[in-house]
Amino acid sequence: MRQVRRTRPVLGGGTERTIPLPAAAIRLPAVLIARLTGLLPRLIGLLALLGLLGGLLLGCSTGTATAPRASSTSAGSSAAAAGSSAAPNARGTAPNRTASCPAPSSSTPGAGESHLPLRALCALPPEVAQVWRTIATGGRLTYSRDGIVFNNAERLLPAHPRGYYHEYTVPTPGSRDRGARRLVTGQGHEVYYTGDHYASFFVVDPTASASN
Known about the structure:
212 residues; alpha+beta; Nuclear Transport Factor 2, Chain: A; 3 helices; 38% helix; 13% strand; rod-shaped
């Protein structure tokens, strides 16, 4: 056992005495400091792991809370995409059919003979249906050239004698003139639509109209 000299006053005199202390008591602080130093990296690692687990739990709870909003956003984006696809493009060609617009019939007059794309009347710009109803009911047409003979000079429609086809103006909103949109009817009850002034045509099924 190691002895350490310590001085302390003694009652009755100024003498000193030696108090023996264990060596282990002297080494104890150093040992504790060494052990704490060795445990420090483990404590830091444990705290980092706890922080990571907390972040994961917080992320899961946040994702669950925001999931309905994401779904509604996706639904809104889908609805917007459907609305934009249903609108006529700049050439006035056929937009995509909506849920209330039935599919056109493959037996529509002119579909098999012309081999042109087939569209339902309700899938075309609304002005097309308005002009067709006027033609079908014998109503008054807007332009003086409505009903003139269509000569099929571009030869995009099936060949027939002159006078077989007649054309009608489909108004273009915002246009100062007749625009480029036309309906062409044939004597065999064919109905054709062009949105680019005879550069291309669709076969129209006038019986496929939007349901209310």
